Amino acid sequence: MEELANLFHGFAVALQPYNMMLMVVGIMLGVIIGVLPGLGGANGVAILLPLTFSMPPTSAIIMLSCIYWGALFGGAITSILFNIPGEPWSVATTFDGYPMAQQGKPGEALTAAFTSSFVGALFAVAMITLVAPLVASFALRFGPAEKFAVYFLAFCSFVGLSKEPPFKTIAAMMIGFALAAVGLDSITGQLRLTFGITELLNGFDFLIAVIGLFGIGEILLTMEEGLSFRGGNAKINLRVVLQTWKELPSYWVTSLRSCLIGCWMGVTPAGATPASFMSYGIAKRLARNGKNFGKGEIEGVIAPETAAHAAGTSALLPMLSLGVPGSPTAAVLLGGLLIWGLQPGPMLFVEQKEFVWGLIASMYLGNLAGLLVVLTCVPIFAAILRVPFSIIAPLILVLCAIGAYSVHNSTFDVMLMLVFGVLGYLLKKCNYPLAPLVLAIVLGDKAEEAFRQSLLGSQGSLSVFFSNGLVSTIMVLGLVALFWSAIQEGYSRLRTAVA
Amino acid sequence: MTARRSDAAGPAHKAVETGVALLIAAFGIIVIIGSLKAGINWGAEGPRAGFFPFYIGVSIVAASAINLWSALRETDDRLFAEWGQLRQVMSVVVPTAIYVGSMPFVGLYVASIIFIGWFMRWLGGYRWLPTIAVALGMPIITYLVFERWFLVPLPKGPIEEWLGL
Description:
The complex is a heterodimer of chains A (about 500) and B (about 160).
Chain A: H1 2-14, H2 17-35, H3 41-48, H4 57-82, H5 91-102, H6 106-139, H7 144-161, H8 166-181, E1 183-184, E2 191-192, H9 206-225, H10 238-247, H11 252-267, H12 272-286, H13 299-314, H14 316-322, H15 328-339, H16 348-351, H17 353-384, H18 389-408, H19 411-429, H20 435-457, H21 469-482, H22 484-498
Antiparallel strand pairs in A: 1-2
Helix pairs in contact in A: 1-17, 2-4, 2-17, 3-4, 3-9, 3-15, 3-18, 4-5, 4-6, 4-13, 4-15, 4-17, 5-6, 5-13, 6-10, 6-11, 6-13, 6-14, 6-17, 7-8, 7-20, 7-21, 8-20, 9-18, 9-19, 11-12, 11-13, 12-13, 15-20, 18-19
Chain B: H1 13-38, E1 42-43, E2 46-47, H2 51-73, H3 83-123, H4 128-149, H5 158-163
Antiparallel strand pairs in B: 1-2
């Protein structure tokens, strides 16, 4: 009951006119970011983060999280109308969304996508409302060993669940950890890995890495493909919307399944992209007209969009309650918390009630606002895409540079951003996943601190990570996740051997 | 994403993949050296500063060794990209590098005007009027939004100083 009261208080915070205005601004910016190639949720939020330094934290997080929702909505527009996924998680939406648009049903496809996104997000927010306080109060009892075990689980899930080769995931992740270690060691106060370069004293800021890897890297990839936008017109009128809404409830099984897949994949840090693919794949296998998937089935739009939005939203659950972000964008938001002087993790629910519940309430309102904005403004957003890339690209590059500079007011960071950009291009082309790299930079120091504190307590014995039921369970789950693909393969071999 | 081999030429995917694995391994070795310098054993206050990064460095080298091995075993002859595509990529990287490198000296605004102008005029083939409009408009909007509205200072050079901004 206390949660309900807190939630209502949160609504009161989110409904203040200033916060409402930021919400709408955030959604608008987010959709634009989602529509533009090279600007995604993670680096869009990273670039705009410096703008919020002077705002109260609650207003800041409301605006930034709304940018995130907007980006999640925006990705669908380009997928359906132009067959170009604006975001990686909307790739699966192109499979059936674009054929629908080609068959003269862009309105239906867009309405289905937006509504499914909304449903997925709503489901995830409701889950966060109910589960996050419980997880947080549970996590308050965590010692350093348990904390490290949670990080261990998070990173192992990356290795087990990502579709990239496991050793590439490990390599990318460890690069992140190494970058995080550069600079002042937080425990001994000693400098390390700086090799006498003064610019490295403060280490690598992950915001710079995010802007470079995701922003510049993406632009370079787009340049290579030399893409030009060709696509149908977007027309949505009320009749189409209402007609599609009448149709949607009959796919409730797919929706519910996609919500669950999304929430699961979002909480374990697999993220929105695999969630959307998995949900699409399962829907294709189970649907009555599964063989029509890929030719413009509305169900093939509902499944990935619901899952992507549910995953994107539920990625905030571990960020809020444990301080472990479930996606790169959630990681940037977590970085924001640190900058505004808040300590992410379970204590937030005790010390910063207004912040937490204001954010959760704004997630309900922000997604509702997002749905209304995208349904009414699709033609405007689609028009942005007709601006040629040779105008958009330099503007985005300048924005990235401004974002990178204003994190620490340092031009060295801007150069670093470009280095990360080229690196991001190479890594992406060679199938190294970037999300674990970024998450490792964010969490590296905290994971190391927990690891060393646990070892201190046990005089260097690794048995501390299996010293009680709780920590052993989390560690074992982590090991299972780490070897998940090997386990799956072994199981299927066993089955064929038996059969 | 990576092009199938066609008539066009370009670097082989295998070669780039090998190069990236070696690059990452080299990075891992640097991390190991740095950790050894910081001390990887136990001191009075527990594990010393290099303790954790040392094992990170070892994992990087180990993972890259496996990646290198699987890259060398690769038998398909895909292209990493065609030369023409790489030229496109370099046509962004090089000017961006100049843009970024000149920023400490001429400030962000002047550098941005030249950068946007160059990009639109030479890569986009736009006429002077729209080029100048966008190249001047964007920094002006940036100035108003960042410096005036949100009070975020951006790097300025001699020209801004002369204008008294």
